[in-house]
Each structure stands twice: as structure tokens, then as C-alpha cells.
Amino acid sequence: MAIPIVFASLSEPKSYQSFLKMAKADLSEATAKILPILAAVHLEGDTALRKFTNQFDGIALESITLDPQSIKTKIPNNVAEAFLVAKANIETFHKAQMRQDWSIKVDGNTLGIKYTPVPSLAVYAPGGTALYPSSVLMGTIPAIIAGVKDIQLVTPPQKEGLPEILIWLAQILGIKRIVTVGGAQGIAAAAYGTESVPKSEFIVGPGNVYVAAAKSYLSGQGLIGIDSPAGPSEVCIIADETANPMWIACDMLSQAEHGEDSSAILLTTSKMLAEAVSKELEIAFQIRPKRLAMKQKAIYENSGILVFSKMEECIAFSNLLAPEHLEIQTKDPYFEFASIEHAGSVFLGRYSPVAMGDYISGTNHILPTAGGSRIYSSLGVDTFLKRVTYQEVTKESLNKLYPYVKLMSELEGLDEEHGTSVKVRYEENI
Amino acid sequence: MAIPIVFASLSEPKSYQSFLKMAKADLSEATAKILPILAAVHLEGDTALRKFTNQFDGIALESITLDPQSIKTKIPNNVAEAFLVAKANIETFHKAQMRQDWSIKVDGNTLGIKYTPVPSLAVYAPGGTALYPSSVLMGTIPAIIAGVKDIQLVTPPQKEGLPEILIWLAQILGIKRIVTVGGAQGIAAAAYGTESVPKSEFIVGPGNVYVAAAKSYLSGQGLIGIDSPAGPSEVCIIADETANPMWIACDMLSQAEHGEDSSAILLTTSKMLAEAVSKELEIAFQIRPKRLAMKQKAIYENSGILVFSKMEECIAFSNLLAPEHLEIQTKDPYFEFASIEHAGSVFLGRYSPVAMGDYISGTNHILPTAGGSRIYSSLGVDTFLKRVTYQEVTKESLNKLYPYVKLMSELEGLDEEHGTSVKVRYEENI
User: Which domains does chain B carry?
Assistant: First the structure.
């Protein structure tokens, strides 16, 4: 077995089409399973939360929420330092995203935008083997900067108690409440609210297929806002002959490490690089055999190397793919980047592996997957801000514009009331 | 009958709760009906479009699309002038919303955001009595400014031919293609693409319940992006004793004119104003009896006047309501506006009736309804822009930050590949 290497050409869609079909999580089965859970939490509130937690986690909850500030935590100094550096970098990059209110004069009137935060947020943090404390920083910091007032952390309870790192992160982020309910029932608690859990208008953060199905269903009902629907992780790498094949293999395996449905696509003009990366992948499988079957399935079945004759074709294919992560490892990566239209987060140059953005550089790692970057953005301060438009019309401008409103409202059959509401003001001094 | 007047207090939720339940379009029945239509268009393409157009519109389509530039139109000069003034004002306000790419240094690395437009857009324009040419301007102009390249207009065919105003608007907006298919089948054509109709990644614009259901369903499937789900229209008016009761009645009736499920809520501290507005509504029903039953149902059953003892309570109630349109007609409307958190579009002062924004002032009239302004914004340039984040990490910064990435990836069980992808670069010169 080896990673597929394909000599592709943009003018022959058959040569690349199979690599455009990125894994999309199929949520229909999970949705059918969670609907009764959502309904029960909606109807029975805390009672349902206790019942499901007993059933799924084997835990009899005493209190459903806890105040992280009331708990003593002891985190190793070096771990604390790492997270504090990440927090500072994420804060710096996201503070630069904050919006300023503004207004302009248009045809004599004042028109403007005032930015206001969504009122409340639940950040979901999975438990068990999928404990990703870094995602708590990514989900919470942009909301704090946007000014979201009511932020709660939702996470499954653990028999041995919640991970100290989660509680400590809640403390340093100023989160006032942890809801110790996981899965679809945790999402339902936040979306509907219960006796113990205040309703959240927005829910973000990774989770298993039941969490994803619950978020997606409740968002479709207009009940909550969510980050973009999350599928399997993917990376696309555009590289030329100047790139280091061993490093590229490592970057591809970083995605493969997330699961067997993850995808890593290398686009290059260099046949030599393609073959060298394929070899480096095999070497890596030998020297780093942890979770080998999973990584091999991701690389052999869901990944590939496409060799195009021109760099322009690599870029065009990447824009068709609209990847979650895009690395550009070429001589002048900014040159290729200028033509990139759709990507969640882009990593330029030799020293910018995706893992730097996953953890520490300051960009957000909650990103649209499965081609979603054609229409969605990464999580950011804008995710939690609304644009409230406003206007103050002057008497002079109303007088000038009334004849137009009269004509347009007549044309739309709305002159009787829409037209009249302007006319009465127009006639004020007549 | 008369509009309900209630003396309300924030400390007694029972006094106002019934006015918080705004009409939300129930799409479940319509969704069941449109699913076979969507499936047929997906499978059979143009054949299905012809079949449904025959069935629902009684029209045998020759060509499914037409090029507006190929048609001669003759619009009265004064109507053309009105729409050109509206277009210019909308362009001015929306151009001010355009984003500039930026980057900053964070911990030695370059982190930035590049804004790119969504690739394609379909603007839906209903036919028949719901012909709203103004909505074509509102849906199209922000996308053009954002840089969306492929914009098509989707609208039902008419036995007497398409309204000239629609074709003319397509011409002046530079729209290259009109798809003459309406309803759910028109939305499906744009969402899936057919032999004649290119796929659109984004669909906006008002429509009947089947159009709304199709947009909502396809967006839930992750197939298209849409403007926020549209329900019945609503206005909230905050006014004090300085406001003109007759004007306020006109503004309330402007919303009532949209349909019997529309809602108009007046919040005031003045009992005198409340009673005067109620009287003015009755007078208006007598002197402007067009669509009387509809307007009366909206005013008597879905609207109300709430008298609070303090202006702060009016504002707090408005924030609970999160109205689509909010008028503030008080002595110093900016003072109250400063405390407004959730509203789609706000109209300040005596001379700013909603109709000015509906048609001509320059703000967008495609707005979140049914409390959606708690988490959604009005249509704007941002609707059609994505934030592509990027970074270029330096060797020095990678070396400095590697120990943190190592610790964090170990904690998340992702050190084997995530950690290694940074480690190999760290060790480059060792």
C-alpha cells in the first residue's frame, strides 16, 4: 500500500474528481437518536439531565452546575505557562478583529452600524480521549473580546472528577459556570435552558456525532447559533521542489492523527517531491507506529498526491477543494496565496505547520470543514458580533426623497400605509 | 375592537409575556410538500423544472434562463430616477462596509485576515402580488460590492412576460442571467444546478412559505448559505410624550400592511400617547380601508401598546423582544439607542419611519425576524465575505514556541504527529 499519486490536469476533471469528494459527516442516524433526548430535556429539564447522565455516563449527578472559582486547582507550572502564552497570542490576534461603530452621511441622512455581542454562549468541551483544552481557549476568547456577557462551559462529568486543566482554564478565562452534562443532553440543556442551566443563544465547540447532530438540528430550528457544522479534519498542501518532503509527510500525518476519515491532499508540480513524500510517509509509519491502522487508512484511502503541470493548476484545484487548512510551502508563498479564494486557515512557508495554529500562534482552530470555507469563515470575534444598522433621517432629506418613496411604494402595492407614513411627515408644514 | 393597551412592569413578567411571543413561520408542513420537488430537480434537472412550471404556473417554458441585456425595456423616467437614487444610496452605505485585508505581528509571527467573497449568489424575487423590486436592490448590491462574481436572479415566469422593472433592474445591476423558475423548484435549481442553471452557493431574497422552506432545508443540509430565516414582519416603537401619535399609527400600519400575522408593538411611558395612538389607528382604518380586515387582524391580535413607568423598562423590553425594526421617537433618541442591544435596523427620531429604510435611505431591508436579531445581523457586505485567516511563522518563533506545543500536544494525546510536525522543524539545525 502507498498513498495514491495521480498526474492530474485541470482540463480533465476525471483525473482529480475523486479527490474533491471530501468526507462529510452524515448526521441523519445520530439525529434520529438524539431527537427524543432533546424533547425530554425540553419537557423535563433537570430531571432528564440526571436520567441521561445516569444512563450514558453511569454517574448520579449531585449538582448539575459548578462554579469553577470555588475549586482548588494545581496545574504544573510549565503547562500553565504554555496555556498562558497561547491565551495571550489568541487574545492579541482576536483583539485586532474587534469592530468600531461608525456612521456616515448618505444623501443628507446619518446612516451607521453599531456592533453588539450575542447575549450568551455555551462552549462545549468533550471528555475522555477527546479532551482538547486548546479548543476551550479558541471558543471562549473571541466571545469575551466581542463582549458576550454570559458564557458557560458544558462538558461531560467524569467518575474521577472533571480534568483539573478544564477547571483551571475556566478560572483564568473568567467562566462563571460549568455545566457537567455531556452529549446531546448537554447541548439541549444549554439550548432550551433548565431549572439549573440558563439558556445560551449560541453554542460552539467540537464534540462527537451526537453533539454535532444536536447542534445542527437546534440551529436549523432557529433556536441557537452555532459555529459552522464540523466534519472530519482535512489539510491541503501546495508545495514546490523547494519544500522538505519529510516535513510535509509530518504535516499530512498531523491530520491523519485525528481519525481514519481525515484527509491530507498534497498538490505539487514536482514529481520528485511527490515520490519523496510518499516514501517519507512509509518511513513515518515505521518509526511512529502509534495508532498506525487509523493513520494508514486516512492516508491510503482518504488522501492523495496530485501532480499538476503548473502551479496555477494547483491553486485552482485548491480553490475547488476549499480546504479547512491550507499550507503553502513554495519559494514565495505569498505569491500563490494572492490567488487563494477559499480556505479556512492558511499557513505560509516552511515554518508554519498547522500544529502551530492549532495550539499557540494565535489564529483560531475552529474552522469550516468539507468545503464549507466556500461560504463560511473560521471562528472569530465577528462570529459573536451583530451589525445593528441605524439611521436618522432629516426633515429636508425626507422632503426631497418622499416623491421617490411614493412611486416605489405604489409600484409594490404598499403605498396606502408605507407611502402614507412618509407622506404625513412630508405634509407636516404644508 | 381596539389595539390592546397594557400597563406593564418589568418585575411582573405576566404583564408583558404574551407580547414577547412573536409569530414564527411554521415551515414543517411546507417542508414536507417541497421535499419531493427538491429531489426531482436534483435528479431530473431541467426536465423537472419544466414539469413543475407547467404544473404550478401553467406555463410551458421555452428557455429556462434569459439574458436581461438582450431585452429592450422602457421604464418611465420618474420610476427609473427613484430606483437609481435608491441604488446610489444603498451603494454608498454598503461600500462603507467593505473590509480591508490586514495583518499584525504576534509573538514574532505574521498573522492576518484576507477577505474573499462567496463564489456565487442567487437572488430570489417573488412574482405576482409580492413583486418587490426594492428587494432585488437589497439582495444584489451588497454582493456586488463584496465581489461576488456569479449572480443570477431567480423569479417565477409570468404569462404576460416578466415585469419590465425586474428586467431593467437586472440590466442596471449587471446581472447576466435570469432563471425564470419560481417557488421551491426555482430554489432547488439554484442550489443543485441543472443543465441550464449554474449552481449558486448562496441564496437570498424573500419568498412565500415554500421558498422559505426550501431555503431553510437546503441550508440545514449545508448545501447553500442563506440570509436569516424570514418570518412575518414586525416593528417595535419606543416613544415618549414628544412623539406624534398619528405618525406612530401610520408606522404601525406599515407593518400591518404586510400581512395579518405582522406585529407592531408600541412601548411608551405616556398613557396619553398610548390612548392617542389607539384612536389614530381607528381613524386610519376609516380613512384608509384598503385591506382593512388584514390590517385589523394584525393590529388587534398580533400587536399592542405597553405602558411602562420608566423609559429604562421600555428599552429593556425592546432588548427582550429583539425586534426586526425598531423606531425610537423620543426627545433624544440617541440616548435610548445607546442601551439597545438587539435589533435588526433602528430608526431614530421623528423623520425616520421604517419606510425610508425600506426604499431609499440606503440601509438594507433584509433583516432577521422573530427575535433573530439576538444572534443575526441584517444583510450586508459581511454576509458575502469570508475571513480567510493566515499566518507565517518564523524559524525563531517556532524555536521559542516549540516547548509549549510539545506540552500541549502531549496533554491532548496528539504529540506523536502534531508535536512531531513542529519538532522536526525545531531540530532542523541541531
Answer: 5-24+231-361 (3.40.50.1980), 28-95+129-226 (3.40.50.1980), 395-426 (no CATH)
